[in-house]
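Final report, Chapter 2: Outcomes

The project's central promise was a pipeline that accepts a single protein chain and returns its three-dimensional structure in a standardized token representation, suitable for archiving and comparison. That pipeline is now operational. To close this chapter, we reproduce one record exactly as it appears in the project archive, with the input sequence first and the structure output second.
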Amino acid sequence: MSEPFFDYIQHNRKTVSNNLYGYEDAEKVYGRVTYQKLPEVSAPDIKLADVLLKRQSTLRFGEENLTLVQLSQLLRYSLARNEQSQGVKKYPFPSGGGFYPIETYLLANKVSGLEPGVYHYKTVTHEIAKINGHSLNLEEVNNNYGCSFETLPHVVLHMTMVKSRTIHKYGSLCYILSLLEAGHRGQNLCLCAAACDVGVRPMGGGKYEKINAMLDIDGMNEHHIYGLAIGTAPQA
């Protein structure tokens, strides 16, 4: 006897439908928009043991805007490719088969120097580009993500899984591998947020159809799977 989800994974590893998604081997690039390089930043000067003790989730963020430097530091040391990897894909998290099926989007609400809207983040080059002007108020954020934030998150970071990166090899196991990788990335973000004195709240649920529509993704080959609310830490 096995839980139905794992039965499905076991018995649908190699099916005809798994071959319908094609094969992609590179991170997305939106050719219709211009990417901007995020500010150069240094690593936080803090011990890992102290970061682990500091890590916490919050439902309340500070009044001041998140800065581009804070955002850049958070993304650089949690998600970005290691620039010293000399052309080899090397990231601060593992990925099944080295296929990296996760894409990253930012719903920016209160970031100095950024217009509100949805941005795509390129982990390879540490750049962002605005892909649409969608914005959410506090009530909409709480409704869409099933949370009870007291203040509007400055950024909602979205992770999506792109099945055509990995389904050709792993079949339906791509669901488990993508969720595992998203978890590794999310933990990096939580720890980096603690190191950078930034507030964070992981969000495992949400109204997927609304989120997929906001990100302008099809919900089939690419689907939202994980979100994290980010913002300045509230003053004590």
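Archive annotation: The mean pLDDT is 92.
This record, like all others produced under the grant, will remain available to the consortium after the project formally closes.
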